[in-house]
Amino acid sequence: MKPRMIAILTAAVLFAGAAAIAADSDKPQTHTVTLRNGKVLQDAFVLDKKPNGITLAYKDGCMFIPYSDMPLEYQQKFGYDPIKSARYEKKLDEQKRATEKAEKDRKAKAEKRKSEEKRYKDQRINAQQQKVRKLELELDEAKKRLETTEQTIAQDRGALGMSSIGSDRASIESPWGYGGRIRSGAHNAAVTNKLMKEVDTMGAKRDNQAQDVMNLQLKLEAAQRTLDELLEKQ
Description:
Blueprint: H1 3-26, E1 31-34, E2 40-50, E3 53-58, E4 61-66, H2 72-77, H3 82-161, H4 187-233
Antiparallel strand pairs: 1-2, 2-3, 3-4
Helix pairs in contact: 3-4
């Protein structure tokens, strides 16, 4: 065999051997670990290490094992340091308490915000209920005023219908009868004219009052709708 070919084959063999050694060196070191509770972990090797314990992968899975659950020999083998472990546990405990406090504060703020929102809604509902009630009272008063005005107009028209001098208005029986506001003789014309002006004035007043009643009815309906919407959202 030529020297060149021998050199090539030798180099190939050396490379393959080196690759195999490197592959073997990359494999994690496995252990058979028996825990204090008697559980045996076959083909276990370290996945992660913390000051208070290690995470082992083994034949049937993986798990975190505190050093306190390991026999002394494994504690020493995996580099257990009680002081570092205690400091780490304290740090974890502080972080846990800080997380719990932050969560408690968050919940407290959420409850406070919810309570404030409810109080605000209750205040709005209460204010709207008062507004509805006020409008109802105003509407009742407006209707009474309108009714009084219409009664006065009816009385004046009735008196005019009973006048001895006559009138082109519809004859309505007067609740006053004779000898009231309408008198016989020379005073009839003056009294009649006065009543006619009063009827006209009261008619305009009645129209304004009727408009007031209508406006209050519209306001009341709108206020009631708003109240119903607030109650639905409660």
